[in-house]
């Protein structure tokens, strides 16, 4: 009897141990299953949250970078030692671009500098990452905007690739409102052969009309009969457009390249064809800004194509 009783007790203990083991194993798998479920839910939530951030992220250079300021660098040049470039961007979307062509003479190991200054307004592309400089023709006028740097793009607005790609970068030097770097050396005036500090609307006495509303203007070889506009520092203008003399006033904000002509007057001579004269008068009423590029001047409206182009007269 003792033997059977002992066996029964032992079997009962073994059974209890098995039950406990099974219970523990079951609990372990339940906990593991719940942990996996929580992990999957967390991962799903993270994926959803991450997707939402990507979709809602519409930041670009135009609305998230402090891009205004002065940028400098020496850009590659096909027929010179390099182009020292200084580009200043203002918060009113105006710009000043100085380009200095570095050229070595054949027999003297020194670098001569030829300077050109352009002023105008800049616009942004749809993506908000590239600016386009107005008043520049037959040369690259687009820059990709990064944090504290600009990259000059090619004529088609694409990034330049190859060994020289890293050379087309302008680094930011100072913010707008601070003292800019010293101005470049004075440039030779190609017309008079002397030196001037910088070209303005008043650098030349007269500006000859060469294009009106996108069409070239035919001027005679006699300088007295060439079509021109003359601007003075008293904010008065005089013009001759083939027949009558025109005159009037204008409002000028030279620091931001803005100009607005007031309603003027003209002589009343009868002329066979006054079409150009009438178009010129209408053009003056539309102008609200201008661009200077060396000895060339253009009158513009907003960001559209130039309404009129002029060349400096001797």
UniProtKB/TrEMBL annotation:
Pfam families: META, NlpE. Residues 205-311 form the DUF306 domain. InterPro entries: Cu-R_lipoprotein_NlpE (IPR007298), DUF306_Meta_HslJ (IPR005184), HslJ-like_sf (IPR038670), Hsp_HslJ-like (IPR053147). PROSITE patterns: PROKAR_LIPOPROTEIN (PS51257). PANTHER family: HEAT SHOCK PROTEIN HSLJ. This is META domain-containing protein.
